[in-house]
Amino acid sequence: MPTFSGSCHCGAITFAIDADDADRDLYRCNCSLCTKKAIIMKPVRREDFQLTGGEAALSSYKWNQQIAEHFFCSRCGVYTHHKRRSDPSQISVNFGCLDNAIIPPEHEVGLVDGAKLE
Ligand SMILES: [Zn+2]
């Protein structure tokens, strides 16, 4: 399975995911947090995610039922990934943080109804 690397904006936090395609299964979420972040996410199995650098710069945020954990860079503020509440066996990464991330114009981005979980 190919490995795709990614990072926050300042480069302090780096990560890698194993996935068949980096630009498949992309989704947005309509919960109140994701609405404010306005990002596109790529889910992977937890074992297919590796934090490759920057653990000391990593901050996290929990809210509501404290199940999901949202990670971001304490230097540049960019959200990099989170442990999913709807499926704790998965990590979702910020698709925009993947190196050379470009969403093809014809690509479908699904919607996760996270607002229903609030
Ligand atoms: Zn950063």
From TrEMBL:
Signal peptide position in this chain? none
Pfam families given for it? Answer: GFA
- Source organism, top-level taxon: Bacteria
* UniProt keyword list: Metal-binding, Zinc
Q: Where is the CENP-V/GFA domain?
A: 4-118
Keyword Zinc present in the record's keywords: the answer is yes
| This protein's name | Gfa-like protein
Q: Which organism is it from?
A: Candidatus Phaeomarinibacter ectocarpi
